[in-house]
Design a protein that fits this description.
With 298 residues, the protein is α/β, with parallel strands linked by helices. It has one domain (33-257): TIM Barrel. It has helices at 33-39, 58-61, 70-73, 88-94, 126-131, 148-165, 183-195, 210-216, 231-243, 253-256, 261-274, 278-290; strands at residues 50-54, 83-86, 102-106, 108-109, 121-122, 136-141, 168-173, 200-203, 221-224, 248-251. It has an 8-stranded parallel β-barrel, surrounded by 6 helices. Helix 11 runs antiparallel to helix 12. The longest helix has 18 residues, at 148-165. The chain is globular and about 70 Å long. The chain starts with 32 loop residues before the first helix and ends in an 8-residue tail after the last helix.
Length: 298
């Protein structure tokens, strides 16, 4: 029992109105405190953006190039990421529990690269997500795909479960080989996900009209890095996206398949959080690549 305090309270600051600060992230102001707290572990509150390191590819591709040994190839990179996107198997087996930033858990799955990829189902329970202390659950949404409705319902079920427990839902828009990857499609896919409750959306950058994609989506958009590009092109991609309204990048192959992954992720951070130009970021990459790759200031 606390000791009794008989000192009379008097410093009420009655002339100072209580401040109510809006939350820094687009479309998130009316979310619960716990959800906002988790989003602040994904997005940097100072810049309002994120550098997500994605290495969940093995859930349908197996041990792809650069992910043969997560403990050797990925763990040295995690200190530079704002958040990690991965599967529960890799989280438990390979990621140190001393990592304290946001975890985005791959929550859908089923088919391998050998089958129809849109035939996914929810692959993780909400109890498991809570047990693993994740900030968000990621689900693939195949707008226009063979199993479109199932994938959309996977997302809405995760939204309901996540909202109940204060865990965000990341909708990942998947573009099949037969679909046109243009702004019209991206506006449709991202807006559908947002309207049906996704907390934020991951999609692809398009050269023409991407600013209309981010403008039409009422929740944050992060862009997928996609296939491996030369480092200068990947940095240009990241720069274009954030300058046209993206709230960050979710890169995998363009980081862990780089010639110098530690240098590359730091250069990406410079673009996302410091608004470095593509040339400045590439110069930083080359400097770190040729040096000891010491951490750059975030």
């Amino acid at each position: 029992m606390a000791d009794a305090d008989n000192t009379e309270a008097k410093n009420y600051a009655a002339d100072v109105p209580m401040r109510s600060e809006p939350f820094f992230l687009k479309g998130s102001n009316n979310l619960d405190w716990g959800m906002k707290n988790r989003l602040a572990a994904i997005f940097n509150p100072s810049s309002g953006r994120t550098v997500m390191l994605a290495f969940d590819h093995g859930y349908f591709l197996g041990p792809t190039s650069g992910l043969e040994r997560v403990d050797l190839n990925i763990v040295p990179l995690i200190q530079y990421a704002d958040t990690l996107m991965l599967t529960r198997g890799i989280l438990r087996t390979s990621i140190p529990p001393t990592y304290t930033r946001g975890i985005v858990l791959r929550a859908s799955g089923g088919p391998s690269i050998l089958k129809e990829l849109s035939n996914e189902e929810i692959a993780v329970s909400i109890d498991e997500a809570i047990r693993l202390n994740v900030a968000a659950m990621a689900v693939q949404v195949f707008v226009g795909g063979e199993h479109e409705t199932r994938s959309v319902h996977n997302m809405t079920r995760l939204v309901d479960m996540g909202n109940r427990h204060g865990i965000a839902t990341l909708a990942v828009t998947a573009v099949g080989t037969e679909m046109v990857r243009d702004a019209k499609y991206m506006r449709l896919a991202t807006r559908m996900c947002a309207e049906l409750g996704a907390t934020y959306v991951k999609t692809y950058y398009v050269d023409e009209g991407f600013e209309t994609v981010t403008a039409a989506c009422p929740v944050p958009i992060v862009i997928a890095g996609g296939k491996k590009l030369p480092e200068a092109e990947a940095l240009q991609l990241a720069h274009n996206a954030v300058q046209q309204g993206a709230a960050g990048v979710d890169m995998g192959r363009n980081i862990f398949q780089s010639e110098a992954p530690v240098a590359m992720i730091q250069a990406v951070r410079g673009v996302v959080h410091k608004n470095l130009s593509p040339k400045e970021a590439y110069d930083l990459y080359l400097t770190l690549k040729d040096g000891d790759e010491h951490p750059a200031d975030s």
